[in-house]
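re: that chain from earlier
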Amino acid sequence: MDRVQDDETVPLAELVDERRRLLNVAYWMLGRSQDADDVVAEAYRRWYGLSDDHRDSVAEPRSWLVTTLGVICLERLAPTGRSHPGPVGAVLPEDLDEEVSQALLEALDTLSPAERAAFVLNDAFGMPPETVAAIVGQTEQECGELAARARHSLRTRWAHPTTPQQHDRVVRAVRQACVAENPARLTALLAPDATVFFDGGGKVRTLPRPVHGARRVTRSLLGLLVGRPRTTLHCQSVNGRTGIVVRYGEEVAAVISLDVAGDRVVQIWAVLNPDKLRQWNRAATREK
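^ sequence. v structure.
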């Protein structure tokens, strides 16, 4: 959000996007929707607790809010009686405790607060290194090492090497389960703590946050992909491995990549952003 004066109105879309981003960051750092709501409210309380001159001097209010939110989350994650030495001053219908698989929460809980923050802010939200460092209260290099350590720890927990042939077999089975509209078969192909991310880029109306758990991932995927005429699913190479390309008529409407561990899908990325699909549609046109 750009800097504004007191008499300037911020577009509604920016306000909604800002709050959604804050909620997503807080949720991934803390793991509970109620906690996320609480810390977002606290971040805004601190914003409005600033003097008018102080607020006017903040060049990027959204960055200030994200940094403050991260510090509050770390304060929540820190052991009782310990405070985070960070910079000074600096919404769902169901209970997310049920939506987020216990396995994922337990995996994140094995990380230290600093590792968890560095990993979530860097890997999940792609925040600039200087912002992550400001939130965690360590240098950019130290935050990079924290994120790398967190990745290694999480990878070790789910280390099930998969050959390209195994990956291809599982993805094709997922496609067939979707085409057959078979939720039981699709759920069986997913890890219990599977996650699906939807990238609409703000250009299409889709779920704004990840979906967790095999049954919920099944429901969201089938809701997206089946039951509509002229929608077809094709297995093609996506980022060097078998993925699923979804066409509506002749237009590529989604590209889905899957992470497979052993014989189960653990993560899914569904790209629906038309800007990111432009190259796919150009290639489809050239092939005619």
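Strands lie at 190-199, 211-212, 231-238, 241-248, 251-261, 264-271.
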